[in-house]
Amino acid sequence: MQDFSFDVLVGSIREIDAKFVSSAVKAVNVSLTLRNWCIGAYISEFELHGSNRAGYGDKLLVSISQELKRSGLKRCDRRELSRYILFYHRYPDVGSLLPEGVSEHYVSLCSPTDDRQNQYIWGGIGGETLSPTFRTPPEKLITSLSFSHLSEIMEIENPVKRLFYEIESIKGCWSVRELKRQVASMYFERSGLSKDKEALSRLANEGAEISFPLMAIRDPYVFEFLGLKPAEVMDESVFESALLDKLETFLLELGRGFCFEARQRRVLIGNEYYFVDLVFYHRILKCHILVELKTGRMSHEAVGQLNTYLNWFKENERCEGGDNPPVGILLCTEKNDELVKYATAGIANDLFVSKYEVVLPSTDELEKFVADEIRVLRETDGEGRSDWHVSRKNEDEIREV
What we know:
Elements: H1 6-49, H2 60-70, H3 78-90, H4 102-110, H5 114-117, H6 138-144, H7 147-153, H8 159-172, H9 176-184, H10 187-193, H11 197-205, H12 213-217, H13 220-225, H14 230-234, H15 238-253, E1 258-269, E2 272-282, E3 287-297, H16 300-316, E4 327-334, E5 339-343, H17 350-359, H18 363-377, H19 387-400
Parallel strand pairs: 3-4
Antiparallel strand pairs: 1-2, 2-3, 4-5
Helix pairs in contact: 1-3, 10-11, 15-18
């Protein structure tokens, strides 16, 4: 124990903490994945053998979704239920990992016939799968990849291509975003044409975004499974979070009709979830006000992102005949002083445009607010360092673990 120094002590604590964090995240991911497989299994088996299945027909998934939502279950809309069913058929052998009690319940509920006993007992009837020799072991699959990874992979029709991305994702510890990027870059097809596949693999993984435990916890499937709120896991940084806190209060204190509705409001566009920083409803303008804060330079990507949110709110949240089109406020903290832009999503009503320019805070007010808050947040502490930088340093240490 002569080498058991203070530095070794601290290092050991950090190491064991990292291991248990990783273990906890893995356990959550496995439970979530198995739950989703079971949901797909139950629905599939009901479609085949349910005693009153004929009464639901094509409306089965809609009916299930409505009932589950009344019970408070998350991520159970028709699209998600279809995804769970596909997961069940793509990966039938995942069922062999069900814990005791759950597996018995499945067998007793679905009562496989003798004919089906000769096939793999855990469903997958009609599913396109590879032979066991050319499949990723199910335990390796669900302990190494999150359900979000699997959701991306199982959409691929070609089973060999699915296997390729399973292996590459596991080997490279890819994040979900990196997996999407590699699929979009046709890595599988390029690998098939490449003579030096190892060289291509090294090139593909250079600079690849790696997944880490805290990133996995931010997965939308996970935080809804655990009952977390988006704001608890989706804040980008201490600095941005502090600015949003102040901005929310600032707008409400203006007293011009702002009614707070949500922070980090989640919207589903296609199969992707996005988060709007702040959402208000304005009782005078009778429209939603969306606020996006970017702790960086103004960019066309930021404008496009906000415009996408505005169009989504216009189509999905606007009450026809009662609400005006939504208005967006985009705040950027860099580029000369501070840039403030209003995005109106193509509002054609000149009277309304003139009205919101009077009722909403002016560009000067918002610029002054952002400038003042940045100055306060970056005021130096007693050691000549900004509170923000101290917070970011602590955050970076947490991320490193």
